[in-house]
Amino acid sequence: MGTIAVRSWKQLRDDRIVKQELDYSCGAASLATLLNEFYGQNLTEIDLLKAMNKGDGRASFEDMQQALPQFGFKAQGFAASWKQMTSLRIPVVVYLKHRKDDHFSVLRGISDDVVWLSDPSLGNRTFSRSQFLAMWETRHDHPQHPELSGKFLAILPLGGEDSMQKDFFTRTPERQSAQAVNQLIFRSSP
Q1: pLDDT number for residue 164
Q2: d(CA 94, CA 47)
Q3: What angle do CA 24, 28, 32 make, to 5 degrees?
Q4: Which of 140, 40, 60 is nearest to 104 (CA)?
Q5: What would the pLDDT profile of 69-95 be if each residue is shown by its tens digit?
């Protein structure tokens, strides 16, 4: 007889995520998650905090952008529309307003209806389009381009080598509740 590996809810929630250790280190933890899990690096949240050289720990896209070349990567921040977000093919760091606080997270999957975040504070979480937009649409003060309602940071290797972990990003994420709903449908079938 074979054995079946059992994983706890906490292990599943935090799978492939560098969790933030400090209240203000979501940017560094998000970068570490993306670099480790998509590009195969072995970096810690502390490595990235030190590289950003932020006394108060609070980081911006610009701070992240300036720190990444020492690890062999470049980054570019973008204002984007929902339509542009759904055409992404790689994970990116997204800027959110979560519970009225500035927050960074990793966009790990996106479709027309579902967004999967690998969040350094909350773990792996899925959101409906409207739930995500409520957090991501932070550019209300730009009337010239209202369609560019949110921001993300794209990260690419400086050398252009292709060492990407293709299984870290998906264009077909499912809500975390999808499996439970399918089980209920199966159980209620005659």
Answers
A1: 86
A2: 20
A3: 145
A4: 60
A5: 999 999 999 999 999 999 999 999 999
